[in-house]
Amino acid sequence: MASFRTVHDFGCDEIIINKSKFIGYASPINSEDEAIGFINQIKKKHSDATHNVYAYVYGDNNSIQRFSDDGEPSGTAGMPVLNVIKLEDLKNVVVVVTRYFGGVKLGAGGLVRAYTKGAKIGLDSAIIVDKTLFYDIRIEIDYTLLGKVENELSKNSYIVKDKIFGEKVLLDILCIEEDVEKLRSLILNATNAKCIISTGSSSYYSVKDNKLINKLID
Hints:
The chain is an alpha+beta fold. It is 30% helix and 39% strand. The chain starts with a strand and ends in a 6-residue tail after the last strand.
């Protein structure tokens, strides 16, 4: 997969709806076992909660999809949480919505809306991103060429991962596979071939609004 939508890191947020407290949790996962472990961790943390509703999807084609109403009326909790994940077109994500009952019944429609909201705030807190497979491209140039090269990179929306200043300037650029040759041509033309370009390994990075998301959530 060249790119897929998921969440960047663990996220948590809460909301009060008709005196009931809903706490939304979300996390990326790398296996179904991780999803189950995350769910059990939240259940243990909130063992006194009225309900710990969950849903998760995993696999290249979301081949694994699981949910639980955890005692809420059928179809009012787990399925709405799963639907939020699917509507956001997310992969490899687990969501748990914990409820502390506040004494006011919400009805079937109210429960669907509440668990939908609980899932959404958890996912938003975890930061929805595009997980994109990039190649690391290193460009070595003279200082006199830095301004021109940076301008060309900016105009073409390339992501500069790092700059290293030494005897020469080293620019580490993230580039999707189909644009590697385009980037090479761009830099060769901008520098009149007065550069050294090397291609490193590929890795998945979190990207939002064409910017790297490096910060982990506290």
